[in-house]
Amino acid sequence: MKKNIGILVCVLTLSFVAAARVKIQNLLTENLTNPIGLDIKQPQFSWQLASDKRNAAQTAYEIKVSDGKSAVWSPGKVNSSESVHIPYNGPALQSGKKYTWQVRVWDNNGKEAESSAPAFFQMALLNASDWKAKWIEPGYTEDSIMRPSPMFRKEFTANKKIVSAIAYITAHGLYEAQINGKRVGDAYLTPGWTSYKKRLQYQTYDVTGLVKNGSNAIGVTLASGWYRGTIGFTNNINMYGKDIALLFQLTITYSDGSTESVVSDEPWRSSTGAIRYSEIYNGETINAGMDKAGWSLPGYNDTKWSRVKVVNHPMNVLLATSNEPVRKHETFKPVRIFKTPKGEQVIDFGQNLVGWVVLKAKGKAGDTITVSHAEVLDKQGNFYTTNLRAAKSQDNYILKGGGEETFEPHFTWHGFQFVRIEGYPGELKPENFTAVALYSDMKPTGTFTSSNPLVNQLQHNIQWGQKGNFLDVPTDCPQRDERLGWTGDAQVFSRTASFNMNVNNFFDKWMKDVTADQENGVVPFVIPNVLGGAISSAGWADVATIIPWNMYLAYGDKKILQDQYASMKAYVESIRKNTNNDLWNTGFHFGDWLFYRPEDDNDGRAAVTDKYLIAQCFYANSTQLLLNAAKVLGKTEDISNYENLLQKIKSAYLKEYLTPNGRLVSGTQTAYVLALNFNMLPENLRQQAAKRLADNVKSYGNHLTTGFLGTPYLCHVLTRFGYDDVAYKLLLQETYPSWLYPVKMGATTIWERWDGIKPDSTFETPSMNSYNHYSYGAIGDWMYRSMVGLDTYEDGVGYRHIKIKPHIGGGFTNASAALQTYYGQLSSGWKIDNSRILMDVEIPANTTAVVYVPATAANTITENGGALASKGIKVTGAEDGYVMLQLGSGTYHFAAPKPVDANATINLSEYAGKYKVEGGMIKLIEVKMQNGKLIAVVFNNSGELEPVKNAKDQFTSADGSTATFTRDAQGKVSKVKMGALGMAFEGVRQ
Ligand code: BGC
Q1: How many Å apart are CA 927 and CA 473, to the nearest integer?
Q2: 598 vs 588: CA distance, rounded Å
Q3: 917 Cα to the center of ligand 1, angstroms
Q4: Inter-helix orientation angle 724-732/453-469, to 10°
Q5: Which residues have CB under 8 Å from 582's CB, separation 6+?
Q6: What are phi and psi of 873, to 5 degrees?
Q7: How far apart are CA 855 and CA 878, in angstroms?
Q8: Using CA atoms, how far apart are residues 912 and 708, in angstroms rounded to an integer?
Q9: Which atom of ligand 1 is nearest to 540's Cα?
Q10: Which of 258, 693, 816, 867 is deepest in the core (most CB within 10 A)?
Q11: What is the pTM of this model?
Q12: What is the pLDDT of residue 901?
């Protein structure tokens, strides 16, 4: 009988295993779902495994690529666990052709999985000779001041049954195309911004649904955009040329297999219409009365239109778009419509966003509505635009009259929360105004939430800073006459960005422009470089090494390192040329941009960091990252070369910037942060340097003083050297300078400056005061990677080998985050539940993880209520108050007793009392309890005494004072020794 039950259990288990096959899902080609318009010769494939069983992993796969009729590439079963970034390796892919692919996966249960559902990709035009289209410009003489938007049109007939119609479009300037009166695609600000002279993207659209049998019409509108509009805060126009032009090619495939191309060429017609003016900084003017109704429909009479000019432009700079286009996203309705003290009519949308307002109005022909944009109201509550500098950011709409009209701009964008409406016919009603956010259509990948609402708002602000400034290129700000691809800002924020959204293709494209605009290795300040010239400023130019490495870590694709390696190396070599005895102590540098600098700085409290000291740290870091890349790519010769160089850079640094006692010549937070983060100091000096950093933070009353370059690493360094408590104090600091100060002031995005709006509601200097600048949002990386603890090991980048090590503290009772990796969803969260810590973890299939559970011993931890061993969970060690567990995929629920906080048991009131000091100026030290805090009063100065971790009877205060108490034979606190006000003295309790 017993035996029979055994067999039954066995059969049931087997049938369960057979049923629990892995599923294959989310097939991506070049990181995109079913992309059309690829010009990459070896597109890469990725897929995800999903299983409701733990420890699911792939052991082999088989990819099949077909062109719809026959197999193109089917290399057979490959014994490999790789499931992301697998390059196509078959015969050359053909221009314009559509391919489908599928994958089968064998998992570690030995069972063959179902094949995935098919996915597809379609190639773009792979050879310059595939372009039949000619570049065309307007045939009329343009108004050289307003430069109204040129329109082009062309009719054609499609006489046979249409199977597919694909349009390839680009422009010098910006374009919007229509076929038969309908918009082509849903992308905006196309063709996007690249280093146009060297790289010009075109977009590929499947327009099968727009082209019909019989007569058809194409209409395309252009605008100046980045190409020739004002760009670069010096009133520069015609950056890439003074004329804008269109290149358009439509390929129709008929059911009989024949194809036909409709291309831009001599017979097209040109004119202007409703868009009378459009500039990125200044806004757009639309005169509805000048609209040419039906101009993109067949049968429109264009006899009065001009011919076009056919021009020659290089075709070898054309490339297919590889990043996600700019699309419309969230919409906002007015939260308040009001009159300001100045009497202006203003609408508040409740969120600082980037995009524009769609409005509806009914009025007479000629009525003109002006929409102005602003991020903030001033102290008096008036509409404030001074910080936009020369950018007008104004849309003007002239009504044609006779019914409700809808307006929105096409070729501009604004950074705003408020709009001022002038000339509106009638009352402003909320239903007639909608703000639309525009940004690159990157997949949202990360969420973060905690028990602190202010920190959650900070996360919201970081995400909105990213949305507003990832508009085809990473911009510094979206509102003033700047909006440029500042390299420093982008590198500083790049790792945080990779948590919130999938920025892989976005940065891959932009890094190619970095390479394109590098001059002898030197990296200009902004990319695309519209400022002219190139100077490598430390921390800015390092974008060349930092972003490729960050993307490699986040997405696990070697290709970005392969593609960027020459650029990384050229950058490091360009520095090497400018060094003296291995010191990078030449040239211009922005330094630790916007560091803390009090106005009345009598005591040298301004946190100025020597610019060449900073440069040396970044030189070392870039060399280290180049070395890392050389190792990943197996560039043996470079490895030893750069290992040598790195040593020289570090010893030159130590000689020049470190005193024999271990002090840096700049005593700032940024100096210590960079030294520690980039491992500039020998091991034996690091801990004391970290203490100097922590003490420095305390000496500013637990405030940061860092600018752009120190901020991203500040909390990481504190955490790494055991100062989680200080990191949390910084995170939770609510007064300036801090992350939460702007939050407390009502910010909905990250500000350029720590005090963009001062406590008295006045503003920082208007020439540099953006309220949507993502750089300081770099704390997001620490929130994900340290607070919640989601990280990747470098031996399994892209979260193939996951590290989850939460740092619990700051009085938070929970924090959690989720990240969509290429393997699937990874998430972790901790919660303090009275006496326990609960940790919920989700590990995607085909990955492994080491999870650090805060606990004193493995046998105190349970998973889903049972002992670890009973769940087959392997314990790999214990360190620093954590027990480390080795996990495969699956969801896990851990619980462990809450560790006892060494300081939690301290009874502060036993130190309170009056301590008499003999001799000298100071006569008395008073230590008292106030609102639950221990306060010392010495000579009219008072400060909170905070216990030193794990050091009995020792306290420090934020201004750097120290207090050490001693006890009598009965254990009663009897004396205190204080270091305060630059003196040391001792008091005896009375
Ligand atoms: C930008 C920055 C940039 C800086 C260079 C500013 O105008 O807005 O964010 O990095 O210039 O220091």
Answers
A1: 56
A2: 24
A3: 53
A4: 70
A5: 645, 648, 649, 651, 652
A6: -90, 130
A7: 9
A8: 42
A9: 10
A10: 693
A11: 0.91
A12: 63
593 lines ligand 1 (CB under 6 A): yes
What is 282-344 written as a DSSP string?
Answer: TEEEEEGGG--TTTTSTT---TTSB-EEEE---STTEEE--SPPEEEEEEE--SEEEE-TT--
Per-residue pLDDT of 212-244, as tens digits, reads 999 999 999 999 999 999 999 778 999 999 999
* Confidence at 271, pLDDT banded by 50, 70, 90: very high
Give 746's contacts (C-beta < 8 A, 6+ positions apart). none
- Is the dihedral angle over the CA atoms 541, 545, 548, 549 positive or is it negative? negative
Q: 108-117, 369-378, 687-696: lowest mean pLDDT where? A: 108-117
Nearest CA to ligand 1 atom 11: 486
Ligand 1 pocket residue status of 565, Cβ below 6 Å? no
Torsion angle of C-alpha atoms 320, 324, 325, 329, degrees rounded to 10:
170
Supply the angle between the helices 504-517 and 487-500 in degrees, to the nearest 10: 160
- Mean pLDDT (whole number) for 752-758: 95
- The Cα-based distances of 15 to 19, 115, 441, 544, 589 in angstroms read 6, 20, 43, 54, 67
Ligand 1 nearest-atom number relative to CA 233: 7
Structure tokens belonging to residue 675: 């030294």
Count of helix runs (H) and strand runs (E) in the chain: 15, 55
Nearest residue by C-alpha to atom 5 in ligand 1:
590
Taking only the tens place, the pLDDT of each residue in 281-338 is 999 999 999 999 999 999 999 999 999 999 999 999 999 999 999 999 999 999 999 9
Ligand 1 pocket mutation, candidates 489, 493, 543, criterion most atoms within 8 A of CB: 489
Q: Which residues are annotated as catalytic? A: 482, 752
Q: Quote the pLDDT of residue 903.
A: 56
Q: How far apart are CA 724 and CA 717, in angstroms?
A: 9
Angle at 13 between CA 10 and CA 15, to 5 degrees: 110
Given CA atoms 454, 710, 599, 956 in this order, what sign does their dihedral have? positive
Task: Give the position, in ligand 1's atom list, of the atom nearest the Cα of 770.
Answer: 8
Protein residue with its CA nearest to atom 8 in ligand 1: 476
Degrees, nearest 5: CA angle 790-794-795: 115
**Given a cut of 50, is residue 6 above it in pLDDT?**
no
Which class for 990: exposed (0-12), middle (13-18), buried (19 or more C-beta within 10 A)? Answer: exposed
Ligand 1, closest atom to CA 487?
10
pLDDT above 70 for 465: yes
Give every CB contact of residue 436 below 8 A, 6+ residues apart in sequence. 328, 329, 330, 331, 332, 355, 356, 357, 358, 408
**For residue 723, which phi and psi values (nearest 5 degrees)?**
-110, 45
Handedness of CA 767, 769, 771, 777 (dihedral sign): positive
* Alpha-carbon gap, residue 692 to 666, rounded angstroms: 12
486, 592, 752: residue to mutate for ligand 1 pocket, most atoms within 8 A of CB: 486
* Contact call for residues 586 and 578 (beta carbons, < 8 A): yes
Q: Could you read off the pLDDT of 782-821 as tens digits, one per residue? A: 999 999 999 999 999 999 999 999 999 999 999 999 999 9
pLDDT score of 905 = 65
How close is the Cα of 476 to the center of ligand 1, in Å?
Answer: 7
